[in-house]
Write a structure and sequence with these properties.
8-stranded mixed sheet; 14 helices; elongated
Length: 619
């Protein structure tokens, strides 16, 4: 038994028919019959060998069958029927040393036999004469289907998709609805008309680049079968990155930290960055937006923001705290380690950075000797950050930089799985330091932004079923991959196919967005990879059952549980079942027409000759 489990088998009604057909097929077996079971989509998998069936007891066989039925689940891959049939035929044609009395070999193919099935493997080579094929087709409760796929456009600033409608579709009117990464609708749905058997390419309406929502996926609505109706799409180049700010909102006050922060973000040449103030001039407090990955606090954090800030950190956000006072540090005390203390430092003239961890991602880009000198930055005042060394556990906190006095200048405190707080001991405004006027200030803030919200430097389109090597995509042996379902795996979680983590491969077994992040010498490098269904899976109208016979394979077609010859006149109802010789027989009439035409020419010649002789005699 060879069971199709490709993506098109996800249509309503097919799952139940497969279970029923498997049960009925196995019920026909006799005690001496041998059974093997394989499933297939892009490649075949053996679930049960005939050797295991031969040695199993009656109860064991019943349990095996039930397990196969219970565990059947269509996947998201394409349909390579030809390759699977060849593999099954090889299995059947191979004689077992222990079995010498095989009199008949039968391959029962259970499939929706949709037009997108790949039969190329059957076009070359002879089918084993000793292997009979019985085709048992299953069909969905409703005919027709439409699917949507991404199409790469020549212009990077627009998104193009293609809608394909199956030949047996009834519905022609559809809607395309874009959504953002959080599942919220973006703009209005777009109406699209596609005739049965046709394809149509559509450019989605442009979204305002300054808007907070960015298109991340598109859904085709109005179709009966949803398995191929949602696709992830690449984000448009240079999307706007939102950074939130907590502190004074004065735009042109050179004494405030926001003044310098705004100029650094405005000068970012790689991405457009928008600064959002969470505390308004009138005292209104806004929650942290869902798409924000970096929050910069340059003042006391209001109590009304703490819950929103906690949720932000729990979704892998980064909080950069640049406190102008002790009170500013204490306002986020709930996120800091136990027994943490802070007090104002007594600085004699000025302090300097005396010790920097250049192995830390924050300062990795400054490790070159040409950029490693921070001694020119003077700090007029700072806060003393006191951590409890005695009760410290690994990962509780780390000091990234120290002043020349040995007290922490920059500390990193992890929060949850991937959230973090970068706590500075001072601000960058003129009252505290010369930091904002140094050549190291803008690169350091840009680096923090990159770590908090890595740029999607590469966007790759793949097909479900493809196998990739993440290490090669990010040029790193230290990488992690985020799957569409939310699961994350690192290079260490996967078996190596060779030497090094770059040899580890990942199969894209489901549609959606995969994010690969590698840690390189230049910092984190992120690749957004989108896997979509094979286009052929949307071509769901059934092939003529005689397609296999045309390829030289004798088939006993079964439709809706009945042999085709019992269901009615095969010649009248199923012309696709006729092979090439049978199709030629009803066309013999052309020979009689040819003879009749020649006879007419002969009579015409005789008649003309007789008229000419008569005219001569009369003359």
């Amino acid at each position: 038994i060879l069971i199709d489990k490709s993506a098109s088998m996800r249509r309503d009604g097919i799952y139940e028919q497969v279970q029923k057909t498997v049960r009925e097929t196995i019920a026909e077996l006799g005690d001496e019959d041998l059974l093997s079971v394989m499933t297939f989509s892009q490649s075949p998998t053996t679930l049960l060998s005939r050797e295991k069936w031969a040695t199993a007891t009656g109860d064991e066989r019943a349990a095996i069958v039930q397990s196969i039925i219970d565990n059947y689940e269509p996947d998201w891959q394409s349909t390579n029927t030809g390759s699977a049939m060849r593999a099954a035929a090889d299995e059947l044609a191979t004689e077992s040393k222990d079995v010498l009395s095989v009199t008949r070999r039968r391959l029962v193919l259970i499939t929706d036999f949709q037009r997108g099935s790949n039969l190329d493997e059957l076009k070359s080579g002879e089918w084993p004469a000793t292997v009979d094929v019985e085709l048992k087709t299953v069909a969905p409760t409703k005919k027709g289907n439409a699917g949507v796929t991404f199409v790469k456009d020549r212009r990077a600033d627009r998104t193009r998709v293609r809608i394909a409608s199956a030949g047996d579709s009834v519905q022609q009117e559809f809607q395309l609805q874009p959504f953002d990464a959080a599942g919220a609708a973006v703009g209005e749905a777009m109406k699209v008309t596609v005739a049965p058997g046709q394809r149509r390419s559509v450019i989605l309406p442009a979204i305002d680049p300054a808007a907070s929502k960015i298109m991340a996926e598109v859904e085709l609505k109005g179709d009966e079968h949803p398995f191929d109706n949602v696709i992830d799409i690449p984000e448009l180049e240079n999307p706007v990155v939102n950074v939130a700010h907590i502190g004074p909102t004065a735009l042109n006050d050179p004494e405030s930290m926001r003044y310098y922060l705004q100029r650094v973000l405005d000068g970012n040449v790689e991405r457009d960055v928008k600064l959002i103030d969470l505390v308004k001039d009138d005292g209104v407090v806004l929650p942290v937006p869902a798409d924000v990955r970096l929050v910069v606090a340059t003042a006391v954090v209001p109590d009304g923001l703490l819950d929103s800030l906690s949720a932000f950190l729990n979704r892998s956000g980064t909080l950069l705290m640049a406190p102008p006072s002790v009170d500013a540090v204490l306002s986020v005390n709930k996120f800091l380690p136990p027994d943490f203390e802070v007090k104002e430092s007594d600085v004699d003239e000025y302090a300097m950075l005396g010790q920097i961890d250049f192995d830390h991602p924050l300062f990795a880009t400054f490790s070159d000797a040409r950029f490693a000198d921070f001694s020119s930055i003077r700090f007029w005042q700072h806060r003393n950050l006191v951590f409890n060394e005695e009760d410290r556990r690994e990962g509780d906190w780390s000091v990234v930089a120290k002043f020349d006095s040995g007290v922490p200048a920059i500390a990193e405190i992890p929060h949850g799985d991937k959230g973090r707080i970068i706590l500075l001991a001072t601000g960058w405004h003129p009252t505290d330091s010369q930091w904002a006027l140094s050549t190291r200030f803008a690169p350091l803030l840009t680096r923090i932004l990159s770590l908090a919200s890595p740029a999607q430097k590469v966007q790759v389109i793949q097909t479900v079923g493809d196998v990739i090597r993440p290490g090669q995509l990010v040029s790193s042996d230290d990488w992690s991959i985020l799957f569409p379902g939310g699961e994350t795996k690192t290079a260490a979680d996967l078996p190596a196919n060779g030497t090094g983590a770059s040899s580890r491969s990942v199969a894209l077994n489901e549609p959606g967005r995969y994010t690969i992040t590698g840690n390189t010498d230049e910092g984190e490098y992120s690749v957004s990879l989108i896997a979509g269904l094979a286009v052929a899976e949307s071509r769901t109208e059934m092939l003529p059952v005689g397609q296999l016979q045309v390829l030289g394979i004798g088939v006993e077609p079964v439709i809706d549980g009945q042999l085709a010859e019992d269901a009615g006149n095969v010649d009248d109802t199923l012309p696709g079942q006729l092979n090439a010789n049978e199709l030629e027989k009803p066309q013999q009439w052309w020979r009689w027409l040819l003879l009749a035409g020649l006879g007419c020419l002969l009579l015409e010649s005789l008649w003309a000759s007789a008229i000419e002789r008569r005219s001569t005699i009369e003359a």
